[in-house]
Amino acid sequence: MINSPVRTSEFSFIGVRKHFWKEVFYNIQLFEDTIEMTEIKSKSPKYILPLRLSTVIEITGQVSKNNRNYSGFQFKYKDSTKLMNCRSQDIAILIDMVSNQITFLNITMFYQAIEIIGRGSSSSVSVLIDTFSQEQYAVKSIGKEYLLKNDKLKILFENEVKILQELTKYNQNNYFVHLYKVFESKTSYYLILNLMKGKSLTAFYHKIKKQSDTKLLSSEIIKTIMKRLLSGVSILHSHQIIHRDLKPDNLLFLEPNNVESLAIADFGLATYSNVEKYSYPICGTQGYMAPEITHYKDGQIKYDQQIDIYSIGVIFNWLLTGDIDKHNPKLQKLDSITFNLLNNLLRTNPKERLSAQAALDHPYFQNDDTTKKTFQSQYGYENVDGDTIVQHKDLKNYSLPLLKKPQRQT
Questions:
Q1: Are 307 and 333 contained in the same domain?
Q2: Considering only CA atoms, which of 334, 303, 329 is closest in space to residue 316?
Q3: Rounded to whole angstroms, what are the CA distances from 8 to 32, 39, 282?
Q4: Do 120 and 32 share a structural domain?
Q5: How many domains does the chain have?
Q6: What is the DSSP secondary-structure string of 147-171?
Q7: Disulfide: which of 8, 91, 239, 280 matches 70 by Cβ 3.0-4.6 Å?
Q8: Among 346, 347, 293, which residue's Cα sits nearest to residue 321?
Q9: DSSP class per residue in 182-205
Q10: Which sites bind ATP (predicted)?
Q11: Distance of CA 292 to the CA centre of its chain
Q12: Rounded CA separation 293/281 (Å)
């Protein structure tokens, strides 16, 4: 006989439900994937709530500045609503521990709206203030009516939430926007996110452009931005996540004027690469889309995470020259190392592009002068014409140029 493994709860507390003429006490346990409520003296749980987006609970009580007086929580179970009364401090801990894994009701109990800072065709982004802590957050609101238009839109939304939930585990360095909680009302879903106080890379670029005589970012700022971007994308790709809409507007700064706080945002088009079929395979922003997306036709073999690498190449080109034209004359002023990295991000054939990690290993990011001199001696200015690829263990040497360095004018 094989014994089932012993499950250890991450948190447990006591709750009380009123059953007609008496009160019944429950042992409430939070496990890795469920909330389970078991009557005292019983061995089997009576109520089991899976930790997923479709599980909805409503916290009861009152919240004000520096004061939380929770009385319990309500949940749907077999077509009826159940109320569980609990100590306020236990509910506070439960909320923090399940955080973004389930959906909450009654957003106005916890947050107060301040202002709308962005609006799209299907969603809006606003600034909120936490009623209890007075801290500011961002909220992305998505209308349910929009999601009901077709199943693909709903799948995209569920992917976005699932991916943001997963990235919480790998976001110690704040490479991504952080999802704190998910709420819903009769008309909308609400994603509570950290507030990016530094705005977008686009806004930052134009601000620097106005202040600078050269109208371009410094090489050190560009290098920091690219390193942050590639580091974040390397994590995404290692977990089979494709962003599919990388562009300056979707790169935000957590802190004003701090390029080391750059974070990847807006996962509304993101997908897992290991799914059988992508929802909306042709998506993204014109100019930043890889050729294999632009020319994609139903029935073709799926593209992969290398589409993000192409988008990063376009962003790099924009940072270096001020636009996304791959034939900008300003490219002739780039040093050979910088141009080589750019070229190997923008290859037409996705198999020829560097991976995110390989790009981070490129001499462009090395501070070792010996490494740079060795590279320059092997691949001088006149040789870096699009045929040269830095050797990495995950690459072969190809000779199909996409981007040739403009010829010097004589």
A1: yes
A2: 334
A3: 9, 18, 45
A4: no
A5: 3
A6: HTT-HHHHHHHHHHHHHHHHHGGG-
A7: 91
A8: 346
A9: EEE-SSEEEEEEE--TT-BHHHHH
A10: 144
A11: 23
A12: 7
Query: Are 162 and 63 in the same domain?
Result: no
Render 365-401 in DSSP notation, one character per residue.
Answer: G---HHHHHHHHHHS-GGG-SS------TT-------
Written as six digits, the tokens of 93 are: 């801990």
Cα(73)–Cα(69) distance, integer angstroms: 12
The rounded distance, in Å, linking the Cα atoms of 171 and 305 is 20
CA–CA separation, 75 vs 104, rounded Å?
Answer: 10
pLDDT tens for residues 93-142? 999 999 999 999 999 999 999 999 988 778 899 999 999 999 999 999 99
Q: Which residue has the tokens 């005589």?
A: 213
Question: What is the Cα–Cα distance from 384 to 390, expressed in whole angstroms?
Answer: 11
Say yes or no to pLDDT of 245 above 50: yes
Place of tokens 């290993």: 361
Residue of 66, 65, 269, 242 whose CA lies nearest to 152? 269
Query: What is the residue range of 280's domain?
Result: 201-383
Please tell me whether 144 is known to bind a ligand.
Answer: yes
- Comparing 44-53, 117-126, 173-182, which segment has the lowest mean pLDDT? 117-126
CATH number for the domain spanning 72: value is 2.30.29.30
DSSP 61-111: EEEETTEEEEEEEEEEETTEEEEEEE-HHHHHHHHHHHGGGSEES-GGGTE
Contacts with 312 (C-beta within 8 Å, 6 or more apart), sequence order: 226, 229, 230, 233, 246, 345, 356, 359
Q: Which residue has the tokens 């088009």?
A: 269
The answer to whether 35 and 49 are in contact (CB under 8 A) is yes
Q: Which of 48, 39, 36, 91 is nearest to 69 (CA)?
A: 91
Alpha-carbon distance of 167 to 235, in angstroms, equals 9
Amino acid (1-letter code) at residue 74: Q
pLDDT tens column, 317-328: 999 998 888 777
